[in-house]
Design goal:
Layout lengths: L2 H17 L4 H4 L7 H21 L9 H12 L2 H30 L13 H17 L29 H20 L2 H8 L15 H22 L11 H24 L2 H10 L1 H12 L6 H24 L6
Helix pairs in contact: 1-10, 1-11, 3-9, 3-10, 4-7, 4-8, 4-9, 5-6, 5-7, 5-11, 5-12, 6-13, 10-11, 11-13
Family: Belongs to the TMEM144 family.
Pfam family, one: TMEM144
GO molecular function, one term: carbohydrate transmembrane transporter activity
């Protein structure tokens, strides 16, 4: 493989490790309905991106990149609520599958004005997607446990996650919401990819993706604050805020910003149709470890065996999609 591919895969691995730990600090505090926590995450990500922007010499801000951050912010605002019903593992897995499929389809078929990225083996590429979808469908039958995410030292009351209902309707709505959020996550980089693929329309647009991150998180922060204002108005100026959760949630935002930096380096060196599946699905392995061994969200022999089988399908799918870039069956 070329040096660009090695750099791309190394960046994708780094992004995967960081993406898998974004919500770990957040899950150990009382995040309530998640809207205030989301705003703090946006602040943390913005501060980290400001530091990175300074290291790059403060390149010009590209306005269209703001919309990518807006798309991410809309999806991320509801993730914590979904986790209260499905748990961190299932929420992450469902979002990852839909993010992967959306990012793959956008790049593979040249949707939304992007150039189509044709893999070396179309057959392998489609077979990998079939495996990915099969594994994603299997996640729907896995049941998670109710858990206590309080900190004992605070003796705080049980949070919304401990009171969640296991009704089929609520579970179905949560899965649909996770799928919608995953689709948004899979589309968040599309405005930036569009700018990079149309130099005739954006002659001053940087060639490297990392130069867009500051604008991306400017959009994310603006949308996060806007969502919080709407939320505060709905709550009649009595928003739910946990002061002790501010730093952990901002830390989650910092981790996410660093993960995105590695992710865009991966996209620069790999096609989006390759980078998205890797960065969307590889973090799930670490998330599953956190969820099963630390948070105890999923237990029981049947659940664990079914989960292992489902993840096996998705992992094999990602590997096949990756191989389809360079290798052909003919």
């Amino acid at each position: 493989m070329s040096s660009d591919l090695w750099i791309g895969f190394a960046a994708a691995l780094t992004a995967s490790v960081l993406f898998s730990t974004v919500f770990v600090p957040v899950r150990k505090v009382d995040a309530g309905d998640g809207f205030s926590a989301h705003m703090f995450m946006c602040i943390g990500a913005f501060l980290a991106s400001t530091f990175i922007h300074g290291l790059l010499g403060f390149p010009p801000i590209q306005g269209l990149a703001l919309f990518g951050g807006v798309v991410w912010s809309i999806g991320n605002a509801f993730v914590l609520q979904i986790m209260n019903h499905l748990g961190m593992a299932l929420t992450t897995l469902v979002c990852s599958v839909l993010s992967c499929l959306t990012g793959w389809a956008t790049s593979r078929y040249g949707l939304l004005g992007l150039p189509a990225a044709i893999p070396a083996s179309v057959a392998l590429n489609y077979f990998g997607i079939i495996m990915l979808v099969t594994g994603g469908a299997m996640y729907l039958s896995i049941k998670n446990n109710e858990q206590d995410t309080n900190q004992k030292k605070d003796n705080s009351v049980a949070i919304v996650a401990d009171k969640r209902s296991n009704s089929r309707v609520e579970r179905a709505v949560s899965f649909l919401a996770a799928m919608l959020c995953g689709s948004l996550f899979g589309s968040m980089w599309t405005p930036i990819s569009y700018m990079k693929s149309h130099p005739d329309k954006f002659p001053t647009a940087p060639a490297d993706g990392i130069s867009y991150l500051f604008a991306f998180y400017c959009g994310g922060l603006c949308m996060g604050v806007f969502i919080f204002i709407i939320y505060s108005a709905v709550k009649k100026n009595k928003p739910w805020i946990n002061p002790s959760g501010a730093v952990p949630t901002m830390l989650g935002g910092v981790i996410f910003a660093c993960a995105m930096s590695a992710f865009v380096i991966a996209i620069d060196n790999l096609d989006q149709s390759i980078a998205y599946p890797i960065c969307a699905m590889a973090p799930s392995m670490v998330v599953l470890s956190w969820s099963i061994l630390y948070f105890k969200e999923i237990t029981g022999r049947r659940n664990l065996m079914w989960l292992a089988s489902a993840y096996g399908f998705t992992l094999v799918g990602v590997m096949i999609i990756t191989l389809s870039k360079e290798y052909s069956l003919i």
